[in-house]
Model the fold of this input.
Amino acid sequence: MLKIDKIKQAVPDEDRKNPTVILLLEVLEQQAEEILLLKEQIQQIRDENARLKKQKPKPKIKSSQMPKDPKDKDPSGKRPGSTKKKKTAELKIHKTKRIAPESIPPGSKSKTTPIRRGLHSTCKAALNKTQRALLK
Done:
């Protein structure tokens, strides 16, 4: 019923006297009451169904009465520590190793491309560069 009250308040004063608006608000109110009754009936039927199946009915749990602190939420919506940073930005390359292709077609040019940065067991980073053959 609270939502219907909000809807009624949102209707401008000059429209509250309009017979069509009055009728629509009454229909809306009747439908809301009927929906509440139907929800209660559905829950009673579910409880009875559970009882017949020898299961427990749905428990009636009251909502929390604790006040909610608006200052707990971060205004940006992100969780703390979720910002991303590049892990390889501060990585020092100790050794560069060129890896030649197995076969180079005749008449092709050589091009070197870095493909992998990795840490080895000695905690030294290596940059592997592969050579590709570019066909004309």
About this structure: The first helix runs from residue 2 to 10.
